[in-house]
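I hope you will forgive my troubling you with a question about protein structure. Here, with my thanks, is the record as I have it:
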Amino acid sequence: AFARAELPSCVPRKAMLLLKKKRYQEQLLDKTENQISNLERMVQDIEFTQIEMKVIEGLKIGNDCLNKMHQVMSIEEVERIMGETQDAVEYQRQIDEILAGSLTEEDEDAILEELNAITQEQMELPEVPSEPLPEKIPEVSPVKNRPKPELVAAS
């Protein structure tokens, strides 16, 4: 076991008191750090819960808006509008056909024959020179140097 050295009786008592005080303060610091950690965790939880509440409130408002829009616009109304749109498209197509129908079948046949003649026609190309190319490359006239636009960094 531990043998005590012979010291004056007041020294070990003061040392013991100081060590006890040190240990008490260390324990107090540990408790305080734990409490601060708990408080920080609680603050984070509260902030996260506030964000969740905002999301839920946003979803609720969005759902209410959708319900109001559904009340205003029924499926029957959408089907009616789609039908009217289809009728309008069909009517416009008929007008286009009437306007385009001003050409007779003979005109269309003549146009097709002309197109076939153009595509079948062999074009006369110029003769290719048989002489070899010159060895020396002609000098190219200098091109004016234009100032290059400066690049600007996006902010």
